[in-house]
Design a protein that fits this description.
Chain lengths: 264, 383
């Protein structure tokens, strides 16, 4: 059936770098078909002209780091028929979730000349911790291809084809040589969700875990292998504490090396 | 010298090897074979002999692969790498058809395979056996049009292994190291010194015809004997072994064995073993619609029984635990494959052992199960 009408799209920003919403502008040849199929009603990164809500589809970038944002996301949810979170910040708290492991009060005192001006929460949290989310799109940044798939799936009223499998399968489909097995390079590919197209291994680098944990990650088995390949405990802790540090499986992985007693 | 025919054996001098490549190119073949890339020997296009891994070898162990220099100039002095020939016959991603909206209906354009015929240069005995397995999957009772078209036009030039790799166990699986059938040409490289040459065996009339114009000389008894000696040495130096006696019943009657729990703790469900396996054929199809909704493409891509989504039904997954996924893979590969295709799914190439990031070794897993079972079932053969 041909589609009816032209649904309204809104793009929202919370604590984030804007890279994920820029992916929409980066759609190049696909941007005009997107604009033809969906009315870009509220996208401040692209235009100051804002059409009032409610909206059929909201793309939400960023994490919740202030009380004001915790209130604002409920407003966004209230005026969105479908709400999709985009990127590591929105789906896992982002790099700024490193604060979750530290004392934010101390940061405030040390970093800012007038700490009393800073109103912030002790944690950076994912959008789903605050409001119901219809779909989460992973990545730091998200993949343009997956974003288009999410929009197309929304238009066709179906579930997006976004796999939760490991980076390894993408790497192998691409014909890459495994950097872990053939070069001895520590790599998070086996525990990380696919979607990036295995970019880093294609350039002889280990995976950094930008897309967060795959569906059944076994970090407990991978960590001793990373250590065998020369990563010390601090290195393992750091590699799991990047853009998806607060994703539960990665958090458990970094906590597990932290808690281990140091060998004599 | 007699006319070349099936069963003929000839000598191709090392310095005349480029003439074989030239003959293949002249006959219209796209030659693909082993080449060094990114620290491994993979399969890619071979335009000149310089593209081959001359003087390279590989050292393999569970979870480890290293490319190393040889102290000679062998062209095929290595074992199998992370790629297998399935990538050419059953590509990782393949568009099957495109549907376009026409008024209130739609047209479907099926993808036609229009590539040139390929010559696989350097198939090992285990890999030839692997083709026999995938033929039963894609070109048997069910015929996959793309696989069938590509396979029918592919020339198979085998190379007998002059050495065994650290994770090889073709002898256990009865698939090597000697090439016995299913090839167009079979080469055995004798590096010397002093004499560097190839013993060429003709396996088909097509194989004989591509050799026309390639300078060959008759094979003496000494030269064929040297090839046999080399093969025997390879057979005696396998890095791994697998006792296949009664393996079908051994595995299928031990589905609740505690060993599954132990291996599942190590298994990453990352799919690497199935991606590198020459016979793993699982795939999924996906519709890729255009934003306009007026055109949709159907793509097929490699999938794996280790993926949670692989068994996603409308409400749930059949194999939620990594234990159930590893067990499904191993029991299918080594046991229920016999029921389905009348052959083992394993060819003993060792790729799944080498390319597992944590070095899980199926020969070790089967041995562990066997060791706790008092006596293997008293039935002949694999069953």
């Amino acid at each position: 059936m041909p589609r009816k009408g032209r649904p309204r799209l809104a793009v929202w920003k919370f604590a984030s770098c804007d890279g994920c919403q820029l992916t929409l502008l980066d759609c190049e040849d696909d941007l005009l078909p997107v604009a033809a199929a969906i009315e870009i009603a509220n996208f401040r990164e692209a235009s100051r002209a804002v059409v009032e809500g409610p909206y059929d589809l909201s793309l939400v970038e960023g994490s919740i780091t202030t009380a004001e944002d915790a209130r604002r996301i409920r407003e966004v949810r209230a005026q969105s028929r479908t709400l999709v979170t985009i990127g590591a910040c929105a789906t896992a708290g982002g790099i700024q979730a490193l604060r979750n492991f530290q004392d934010v009060e101390e940061f405030r005192r040390v970093v800012y000349a007038r700490p009393e001006y800073i109103a912030t929460l002790a944690t950076s949290t994912a959008i789903r911790d605050h409001v119901p989310v219809d779909f989460e799109l992973r990545g730091c940044p998200i993949s343009k291809h997956q974003l288009l798939e999410v929009i197309t799936a929304f238009l066709d009223e179906r579930v997006p084809e976004v796999s939760t499998e490991s980076v390894c399968i993408e790497c192998k489909r691409r014909g890459n040589v495994c950097v872990l097995v053939a070069h001895g390079t520590p790599c998070l590919g086996p525990v990380t969700q696919a979607g990036c197209g295995a970019i880093c291994p294609a350039f002889h680098r280990g995976c950094y875990g930008c897309f967060g944990p795959m569906d059944t990650p076994n970090a407990t088995s991978l960590i001793p292998r990373l250590e065998e390949l020369g990563m010390d405990r601090g290195g393992v802790e750091r590699v799991f504490r990047t853009f998806n540090a607060a994703a539960p499986a990665f958090r458990a992985a970094s906590d597990s090396v932290k808690e281990k007693p140091v060998a004599p | 010298m007699d006319e070349l025919s099936v069963g003929s054996k000839r000598i191709l001098e090392r310095e005349d090897f480029p003439r074989l490549l030239a003959a293949l190119t002249a006959a219209g073949y796209r030659v693909v074979g082993p080449t060094v890339r990114d620290g491994a020997i993979v399969y890619g296009d071979i335009r000149t002999e310089e593209d081959l891994p001359i003087g390279w070898t590989d050292r393999q162990e569970a979870g480890t692969y290293r490319l190393e220099r040889r102290n000679d100039t062998a062209l095929f002095g290595f074992n199998v790498g992370p790629h297998s020939w399935k990538k050419y016959l059953f590509p990782p991603r393949e568009r099957l058809w495109t549907a376009t909206r026409v008024g209130s209906s739609f047209d479907v354009a099926v993808e036609e395979d229009t590539g040139p015929p390929m010559a696989f240069l350097g198939l090992r005995a285990c890999e030839l056996a692997g083709l026999d397995v995938t033929d039963r999957v894609f070109d048997g009772r069910v015929r996959d049009p793309g696989y069938h078209a590509r396979r029918a036009r592919t020339l198979l030039i085998a190379v007998q292994c002059g050495q065994a790799g650290g994770t090889c166990f073709c002898v256990s699986m009865g698939t090597g190291p000697g090439v016995t059938r299913g090839y167009d040409l079979a080469l055995t490289e004798i590096v010397g010194p002093p004499h560097h040459y190839f013993l060429v065996g003709v396996g088909s009339p097509t194989g004989a015809s591509v050799l026309r114009g390639v300078p060959l000389s008759p094979a003496t008894e000494r030269e064929t004997g040297a090839a046999e000696t080399l093969l025997a040495k390879t057979a005696a130096s396998m890095g791994r072994s697998l006792n296949t006696e009664g393996i079908h019943d051994l595995l299928l009657t031990n589905m609740e064995h505690p060993r599954w729990e132990i291996v599942a703790r190590r298994c990453l469900s990352c799919t690497n073993c199935t991606m590198v396996c020459p016979t793993c054929f699982c795939h999924t199809t996906e519709e890729v619609p255009e934003l306009s909704g007026d055109r949709v493409e159907r793509w097929r891509r490699w999938d794996s029984c280790f993926n949670l989504e692989f068994t996603q039904l409308h409400t749930s997954n059949v194999r939620k635990s990594p234990l159930s996924r590893y067990r499904q893979w191993l029991t299918h590969k080594l046991a229920s494959w016999y029921d389905q295709f009348d052959t083992s799914g394993c060819i003993g190439c060792g790729r799944c052992i080498t390319w597992c990031p944590v070095g899980i070794d199926l020969t070790e897993e089967v041995a562990a199960i066997r060791s706790t079972v008092a006596a293997s079932p008293a039935v002949g053969g694999h069953r």
